[in-house]
Specification:
About 45% of the residues lie in helices and about 20% in strands. It is of the alpha/beta class and about 230 residues long. A 5-stranded parallel beta sheet has the order 1-5-4-2-3. The chain starts with a helix and ends with a helix. It holds the Pfam family Rhodanese.
């Protein structure tokens, strides 16, 4: 009897979850999407690949590739489930799938851009494209870590959710210990040769070098106290 009741509870919970998803209109027009976006109370996520993102994206969007499940789940776990979320892709198909996934995983309010970036542009709205920026050479990187003494390398990107999460931590670190180390930023969307050379495949990755020799490394979110300990 208890087993039967448990099964019924699970079924009812599943139906409730599906009902919650069906009650919310997932896909909204470009005009409605923009109205919500300019209110400033929404998180914005591009679920396309990094290459697609760099070719043109909505201003201030974070990025996590829906097709790369490991990366997607790692990056999006730093989003705030209590804040409304706007998602988009190229046509609206990937992002609709992502929107349903977010709702099933505890996000209270999620909206998908109908027609994706194509619909956005057809509506006369603009995308921002990353400017052609020359990447840092491996030689320049090596020179920096060999001549600057104690160096903290931050491999990250503006569109990476956990990287954004680390910004206030890095600011606090600089305020407290800025004179004791040299900060070197490696852009995870541009400095590909350097990333390959130092074997940094995860964003963010933090590495401490002393006189050119790596003495510590950690991927993902790092506590302020941990960084301070490694730089003193």
């Amino acid at each position: 009897m208890k087993a039967l009741i448990s099964c019924l509870c699970i079924v009812l919970m599943g139906l409730a979850s599906c009902d919650a998803i069906s009650q919310q209109k997932l896909s909204i027009s470009a005009a409605d999407f923009e109205t919500r976006l300019v209110s400033g109370s929404y998180q914005l996520l591009d679920v396309r690949t990094a290459g697609e993102y760099k070719s043109g994206h909505i201003k201030n969007a974070l990025q996590a590739d829906w097709f790369n499940k490991q990366q997607f789940e790692e990056r999006t776990k730093y989003l705030d489930k209590s804040k409304p979320l706007l998602v988009y892709c190229a046509s609206g198909v990937r992002s609709e799938q992502a929107a349903k996934w977010f709702l099933k995983n505890g996000f209270a309010e999620v909206y998908n851009l109908e027609g994706g970036t194509s619909g956005w542009q057809i509506s006369g709205k603009k995308l921002e494209a990353d400017m052609a920026i020359q990447q840092m050479s491996v030689q320049t990187f090596q020179h920096q870590i060999q001549t600057k003494g104690l160096v903290l390398v931050d491999v990250g990107a503006e569109w990476c959710p956990p990287c954004k999460k680390m910004e206030p931590v890095l600011k606090s670190l600089h305020d407290e210990l800025g004179s004791k180390y040299y900060f070197l930023k490696v852009d995870g969307g541009i400095d590909i040769d350097v990333m390959k050379a130092i074997k940094a495949a995860v964003l963010p990755t933090f590495i401490v070098y002393k006189d050119g020799k790596e003495i510590w490394r950690q991927e993902g979110i790092v506590e302020l106290e941990t960084l301070k300990a490694k730089l003193q």
